[in-house]
Amino acid sequence: MSKYIPEVLQGLTLPVISAPMFTVSYPELVKAQCKSGIVGSFPALNARQPEILDDWLYQIKEDLAEFSSSNPGKTVGPIAVNQISHSSNVRLEQDVKTCIKHRVPIIISSLRAPVKEIVDEVHSYGGVILHDVINLRHAMKALEAGVDGLILVAAGAGGHAGTLSPFALVGEVRKCFNGPVVLSGSIANGSSILAAQAMGADFGYMGTRFIASKEANASEEYKSSILNAGASDIVYSNYFSGVHGNYLKESVKNVGLDPDNLPVADKSIMSFKDGRSKAKAWKDIWGAGQGAAVIDDVPNVSEIVDRLKVEYEEALSKICLKSK
Ligand SMILES: Cc1cc2nc3c(=O)[nH]c(=O)nc-3n(C[C@H](O)[C@H](O)[C@H](O)COP(=O)(O)O)c2cc1C
Questions:
Q1: If we measure between CA atoms, which residue out of 81, 99, 87, 77 comes closest to residue 20?
Q2: Which Pfam families does its entry note (predicted)?
Q3: Where in the sequence is the domain holding 155, given as residue range(s)?
Q4: What is the mean pLDDT of the chain?
Q5: Does residue 6 lie in a domain region?
Q6: Is 4 inside a domain boundary?
Q7: What is the model's pLDDT at position 274?
Q8: CATH of residue 172
Q9: Taking the CB of residue 179, how many other CB atoms lie within 10 A of it?
Q10: φ and ψ at 315, to 5 degrees?
């Protein structure tokens, strides 16, 4: 585990950062995650236009401030906004400016390592920048750019994901980085959060578990497909976006494709230029990780977090008992 955890990530109800999810993480979900004492996050591109991102940040901050003042003593988690560092994301500069204006405490950058100017701008108001990577090479590039921490996206994660075993990836990164490490990939219950820490990570990064929540912006069909899925009902393909990711096979079948025989796409089709048409594709093809296998219900976020806490504590005490 890291010797240094930035202040904004200390004192959470649970060592959990909610993962930002395109088309799914809207303000209702983010607010519920923060009110449960974990980090709540969303991709900037979920806001249809840059002005909407500005509105969302006002709205979320105001709501959380009201909640804090009427619930003194309750832990409220910080907000994280995800920025896609890709040349096709024409909004990047403006969206980063909006986050700086709102002094968003945590920025999650993904796909390409952020440029040094962005890292410096985030640091200038005391913000923390975490970058998500699928291998050591990308991790080293991001660290060179000056990011504060790494999100390791291991095999089985929902949406764009890597293929490496979490054991290997965490071990390899820990050999050269002792700062904050967040692990993702099929973490959907409390014992898996503890396992991530036992492996050497500081936090679990959880996406799919929160799709199956009342507050998530996902259709009932999407949510129930997660409940019905086992680990092998997830397909890993680059056909839909040009980058490999995990999707529910059921949604692929629903559009008349064979999930076990998908064509291979060209990486160059990846584009974040036209967020809306991409959103349409993600509405039909449902991103989800293999952690769907252990998800059986669609409760409120607060119930999910309460349960995660109990599971985490139970797993910890079982291991402590065994090691005596
Ligand atoms: C539907 C969906 C949409 C996603 N969209 C994004 C995104 O816009 N930006 C991003 O950095 N990661 C995105 N991800 C990846 C998640 O942030 C995270 O890495 C992943 O959900 C963690 O694995 P888990 O789902 O197994 O918990 C998405 C994942 C899903 C399932």
A1: 81
A2: NMO
A3: 12-218+290-322
A4: 93
A5: no
A6: no
A7: 55
A8: 3.20.20.70
A9: 17
A10: -65, -40
